[in-house]
Amino acid sequence: MRDLTNEIVELIRRTSSSLPKDVEDRLRTSIEKEAPGSAARGALETILKNIELSRANSTPICQDTGTPIFYVHYPVGWSTIQLRRQIRAAMEEATKKSYMRPNAVDAIYDKNSGNNLGGDDFPYIHFEEVEGEELTIELMLKGGGCENVGRQYSLPENTLGAGRDLAGVRKVVLDAVQKAQGQGCAPGILGVAIGGDRGSSYIKSKEVLFSEMGTRNDDPKLAALEEQLTKESNELGIGPMGFGGKTTVLDTKITGLSRLPASYFVSVSYMCWAYRRRKMTVKGEEVMYD
Amino acid sequence: MHQIQTPIGDEVIRSLKVGDSVTLSGTMVTGRDAAHKWMIETFIKQTRPAQGDDLQVHEELKKLLNGSVIYHCGPVVTGKSLQEYRFIAAGPTTSIREEPYQADVMKHFNIKGVIGKGGMGAKTLKGCEETPGVYFHAIGGAASFLAQTVTKVTGVFKLEFGMPEAMWVIEVKDFPVVVTMDSHGGSQHAVVDEASKKVLNDLLSR
Ligand code: SF4
Fold first, then answer.
1. Which of A218, A236, A246, B12 falls 20 to 30 Å from A75 in CA-CA distance?
2. ipTM of the complex
3. Does the residue B206 lie in any domain?
4. Quick check: A242 contacting B, CB < 8 Å?
5. The whole model's pTM is what?
6. Are B136 and B115 in contact (CB under 8 A)?
7. A234, closest residue in chain B (CA to CA)
8. CATH topology of domain A5-14+61-143+276-289
């Protein structure tokens, strides 16, 4: 089997230092909505300068290079044992090259491993076997500040008058955005999962973030709710960094999964503006990056 | 735009109001979760005995922080020695985690400014009035941009906490921030929180 370690280091470099164009475009169009001279506008201007600088110098967009979350789709015949080894070796190398900050801290002994490897779960790697010839590796870097403002609700949530339906989902998501204020480095992107158990629900709320900005759920009801939540979140007036302003949420993505009759979970993952996700595709001898 | 040099005098601090844009230059020290917990336990509450170089670092910090600024930041640093260290990514981290400690740390060291993101709570706001000091909000995530304002790394303490948690002594030039908590009880965070809460209640009633 082919050794992809170097190619994965390159994937990490790109993810950490070069923000995807669709995210950058949204930030750029948001600037016009903020009043000239306002702190909100100043924040967005600095963010855009930072994006350019990181890309030009291959330096991390944000010093919190986050939890590395890999989704690997592999054709028949690849070994996940070897792919895991290569991803871990690449992570260590990328840390040496300062594309990544040492970010894995043993929770019991408070010790930073220094190389971004921590037990079997750091980095987080999800494998899925697929039909066809193409191997794809997607990487998302999910920052800690925004992860801390994520929330999970168990409906009904009486304090918010939120019942077990999409109207109730709307209420709890807006509550999560209001509680987050600027703490998750607003403007953010919302990943929402409805249903599942506590674990699967949170995982899906992150997975849904892998899709491009502006792509809507196939279900028209959920697509409409996505639009509505982005619009109403922006009415809250929290603004970039919580300085006050019109740009609080750049986009919302919702997914549904089966639940038990007894449970109705809504999980909200908040992704900061530094929405770092990249993909590499291996096809025969060729390796392509998005 | 105010241009301010550390160490900062009380008159300058009192002149700053919520919403002011400021550029900071001079020496500052980074410190986040582990550092704050360590300062409180070892020197302020003294619930933990000083160990290793603790006392010596305390003396150094007293000089460095007096009238100066503490920066909530866990940077990415290259290089293996003081001569080589260079900040390459250094944006702010979420400040509210230091809420239980910050006011006491400010008073103990006479710290005039706290840089971070997301703002802090009532206890720190009171600390800002009493010390006096202000909270400077930096742009979260703008790590490469802010690292460029760091002209020199002049020291590092407690590297055993790990690179992000160590206390780095840095010199900065024109580090951009916005005052979001001042020494007169003003807090932009409280204002935005309250206003957004009103809108939320309105949206929820629909
Ligand atoms: S929330 Fe995102 S942008 Fe903000 S500090 Fe964390 S990783 Fe960086």
1. A218
2. 0.93
3. no
4. yes
5. 0.93
6. yes
7. B196
8. Dihydrodipicolinate Reductase; domain 2 (3.30.360)
